[in-house]
From TrEMBL:
This is Mevalonate kinase. Coiled coil: none annotated. GO terms for cellular component: cytosol. It comes from Engystomops pustulosus (Tungara frog). It is found in: Cytoplasm. Belongs to the GHMP kinase family. Mevalonate kinase subfamily. InterPro entries: GHMP_kinase_C_dom, GHMP_kinase_C_sf, GHMP_kinase_N_dom, GHMP_knse_ATP-bd_CS, Mev_gal_kin, Ribosomal_Su5_D2-typ_SF, Ribsml_uS5_D2-typ_fold_subgr.
Length: 424
């Protein structure tokens, strides 16, 4: 939940939920007295890392490793509880104590949220017993929850028990903090009656409601990151794929879901240092670096064209183009100075099995994605995972282009999520 939103910081899934009008249970301003299950995806940058800082196009996509939230009405009207088993945090507050903070936080969720202000964050830090300079994952997650709870629920603070469990690693540049903020915003807006609850589970909210969820999730991201671009929470809200350029975020209509192998090298890196290094190279060698950044921009544009042309299913030729774009971009990223020996080992390992990989995010270690064609033999993927695991890397077979924030029934939750909720 403390991912660096390195960009400075909507989509569509395989069932075409984006354009679907659904029947909803409209709840007005009443509190919902029922258990809710909500999830939101992580994100990866498909193409455009670092070039986007210099005005080029970046493509961000929903990652089908998700953050799941369970909300239950409290056993009484006296407490609110947040349980974050991934980081070993479980806190409970008396609503009577929180009520005194409400006048400093409540504004209308029907309009664009205004916060968080420095004064509001200072109030929360004092209340929670955190120092003003706190930056650890637990403290920032708790502050974001308290801010959203007080701001969205307002005068009638509900008694709630919330558990948030994530498939996403924290601090890996995969949008874990945004998925957290999106899930909490959606659950609180629904339970407080600010958005409706779809009558059918696993059906999305309306566009107006998704916009409201996104605007509140953005405030949660501000609590955590200070000055996010809004890309991560937009992907978490709408899913699918989006195009980011010069501060503008636009959904890419009708993109296919792609299978990938996501690998975390577990090598820490400083996003700030990497971004500064690219800038220094650009100032020193403008005639060399500008064409490289322009080429990365062209890669993003070509990738978008191929994805939109292959919505009904990519052909073998289109997969080949995507693989070539991945290889070219990875070489470019090495040229601009954001590669790392750990990423070189990863690319060599996957290439030896006929696969194509590139870093995703800031580079200098961190994560990489490997495109998997639909006809790939499971034994090949297993062999690659085994080899990468021997390097100490973490691997997940998953997909990109995943759906955004969604409401679920308990029976539709993945087994690992159900187990984690039962233990919480």
């Amino acid at each position: 939940m403390a991912d660096a939103d390195w960009l400075s910081e909507r989509g569509r899934d395989e069932s075409d939920w984006r354009g679907m009008t659904v029947a909803c249970t409209c709840v007005g301003s009443m509190m919902v007295d029922r258990e809710l299950f909500v999830s939101a995806p992580g994100k990866v940058i498909l193409h455009g890392e670092h070039a986007v800082v210099h005005g080029k196009v970046a493509l961000a996509v929903g990652l089908n490793l998700r953050t799941f939230l369970r909300l239950r009405p409290g056993k009484d009207n006296g407490t609110v509880e947040i349980n974050l088993p991934n980081i070993g945090t479980k806190l409970t507050w008396k609503i009577s104590d929180l009520q005194a903070l409400v006048p400093s936080f409540h504004n209308s969720p029907e309009s664009k949220p205004l916060g968080p202000s420095p004064e509001q964050l200072d109030f929360l830090k004092t209340f929670a017993g955190f120092s003003n300079g706190t930056t650890d994952t637990e403290s920032l997650a708790v502050l974001a929850f308290l801010y959203l709870y007080l701001s969205i629920c307002g005068q009638a603070l509900p008694s709630l028990e919330i558990v948030v469990w994530s498939q996403l690693p924290t601090g890996a540049g995969l949008g874990s903090s945004a998925a957290y903020s999106v899930s909490i915003a959606a659950a609180l807006l629904a339970t407080s009656g600010k958005i409706s609850i779809p009558a059918q589970e696993n059906i999305r909210w309306t566009q107006a409601e998704l916009t409201l969820i996104n605007s509140w999730a953005f405030q949660g991201e501000k609590v955590i990151h200070g000055n996010p671009s809004g890309v991560d929470n937009a992907v978490g809200t709408w899913g699918g794929a989006l195009r980011f350029q010069a501060g503008e975020i636009n959904p890419i209509e009708r993109v296919p879901v792609l299978e990938i192998l996501l690998t975390n090298t577990c090598v820490p890196r400083s996003t700030k240092t990497l971004v500064a290094g690219v800038k220094d190279k650009l100032l020193k060698f403008p005639g060399i670096m500008e064409p490289v950044l322009s080429s990365i921009n062209a890669i993003s544009e070509e990738c978008q064209r191929v994805l939109q042309a292959g919505v009904e299913g990519l052909t073998i030729e289109q997969y080949s183009v995507l693989e070539e774009l991945i290889d070219i971009n990875q070489h470019h990223l090495n040229v601009i100075g954001v590669g790392h020996p750990s990423l070189d080992r990863l690319c060599q390992a996957t290439t030896s099995h006929g696969l194509h990989s590139k870093l995703t995010g800031a580079g200098g270690g961190g994560c990489a994605i490997t495109l998997l064609r639909p006809d790939i033999e499971p034994s090949v993927v297993d062999a690659v995972k085994q080899e990468l695991s021997a390097y100490g890397y973490q691997c997940w077979r998953t997909s990109i282009g995943a759906p955004g924030v969604s409401l679920h029934s308990s029976s539709m939750l993945p087994e690992d999520v159900t187990r984690s909720f039962n233990k919480a």
